[in-house]
Amino acid sequence: MPPKRQGPLQTVQRETDDIKRQVDSLIKDARLSDGSGRTEAYQSRCIHLQNLVEETTRKLKKLTKADEPAPVGNYEQRKMEEERRLRGFEEKLLVLVQELSPPQKREGGSSQAQEDEEEEDSEEDSEEDSEEDSEEDSEEEESEEESVEDEEEDDDEEDVVTKTMEQIPESGTATYMVISAFKGEQEGDLTIQMGEVLAILSKNEDGWWLAQDSKGSKGLVPKTYLKRYSDQEEDDEEASEDEELESKRKQSSNWDCVMRAITEIDATDVLSAMGAIPAGFRSSTLSKLLDEGITYRASHYIQPELSQSKLSFKDLFRDPDTGKVRQRTARTSLTLTLWSCKSIPTPGVGVQVLSRHIRLCAFDGTQVLSNIHTIRATCNANNVKTWSFSPRMTGNLPSLLDGDCFLRCNSDAPELGILFELGVTYIRNSTGERGDLSCGWAFLKLFDTNGAPVPHRTYELLVHGGTPYEKDVEVDPSLTRGATGTGMFQQMMLSRKLPKLFLKLKSPNVRTRSQLSALPDTLVGSLSSIHLLVLHRQLLADILLMDRATMQNADLICSPLLATFPEIMDQSDLLDALRKSWLEAESNMKRSEKRDLPLLKKKFVRVYMDNIYPLLYSADLPPPRWADEMVENQRARVIFNSSLEPFHTHTPDSPPRHQAFDISQLTYDLLCMAQ
Fold first, then answer.
1. Which of 9, 103, 123, 370 could form a disulfide with 362 if both were Cys (CB 3.0 to 4.6 A apart)?
2. Is the predicted pLDDT of residue 198 greater than 80, yes or no?
3. Which InterPro entries does its entry note (predicted)?
């Protein structure tokens, strides 16, 4: 049987083990030596090992997961551990260099200076005998002060070397690394930060261990927040880790969160190590982008975009003849329907799923080009691996569950497509920690190699594991581990086990195409709310292009609807309430009134101000929180009761409660809101 081939990472691990043996041997020999005639030899060995550590570190940083001949679990975590070991060897060698360096002869220099001063004093004594005693006393005091200062400096250097050596863990010390931050809640608890190295003093059966940090503080910490620190690395690595994180934050790429998801030790790594999630699961990339601010939210993309001169608008024009927003064509303008996801692996024991969903956006292979739209999936309790969308229900279907979407994007990128990220929001039963996991991703390219649009039909997309920057990663490697044979039947059976996403691209009808042309050049959203976005766009054009005194006027505009409409774009329940109220208002309108655009806009403003605007700043409405059933039910009760009883019908004895007033609730700031 041929020998098993070693991967590049395993080769570096063996080289690191060899460096460790050489460093330990050098430190032992240097400390046991009497220092006679061997210092230069130790220094040369130390320099050789420093060069070897630098060369191995460079080799390690160039490695990628694609270089491995076979799949490697927790690849990035193992790579980081090897980097920490090499940094630890480098610190040990630096300390050893300080120990082997020859001491500076400061006492000799001070004595020589003292002799020179004494000679000068003897010459002065021959001339002025009256000042001899005073000068000698002052010179003796100065020489004593200099010698004391030299001794203090030598002591300080020895203390620095001693403290640095104390940071190197001794053999046999039980050291653990913190994998998640913990804040002490009771007296006797120890507050710890992620990446910190602790010394465990005692282990209690209840799961609370007595630990000591690098500052000498002692306290109890939960053992579930710790991981075995096997290679005895230094506590000084916390500073280097912080520097690495700061350098990552300074990068301008939109995918900094992808790199953090790959390299950081977070709850996903812990769950993977416990076997609670499949190997292809990662921290949700698109969820982290949404948490960074409004850059990837619909509330940002519905705002008008300024031209290069900042004196006009790039994507907002008004037809003077019809009074409507001038339609604009985009490179991509289509509708799609999500049907289902099949064979999606589920998290294991200890993880409770709060939400299953798909996040989609325009993507060119390197960065997100649009807002991120979220659609919540439903599943049967008997078959949790199959997700479905647009469930049948009485009344209006909530936009969060609606699988019918639209996409507009005017990017000319050749690799333009739609990125789908399948995700779950979970909570750990043991710690109560919440998080977002990516169950895989799929990508549908919208143009072929010749630049022609792909046909509108049903697509069956294979779901990949990892992140969009990782290639050839399986969601669950156990599905294909035992697969053998290359026959058609075996391939069909294997294909049925792989996770897939089913969707259909559709060409919009005449009415929908006209509505899409009135929207911003780049936007992704629910098809059920497209008529509301068109009315908002029409009001935006009227106020910004017609009602302003001049195009250079940038004063605050008194328009509560324009000031607050972007907020309901990020709160799907309020958007559904507006859709329901407007549907009721339209049902009571005559056909001629529906064709009267000025009347239609006035009624829309009235419906918004009567039913939605008071809800935004109601003290009874809790702030939204994703996948929190209690908060969602409480918000639904407030919104449902308000829809039955409008705010203007409240009696003086029971007035509605509102938040504190702010000028931003009434005024639209063009300079701050425009893109």
1. 370
2. yes
3. NPHP1 (IPR039687), NPHP1_SH3 (IPR030642), SH3-like_dom_sf (IPR036028), SH3_domain (IPR001452)
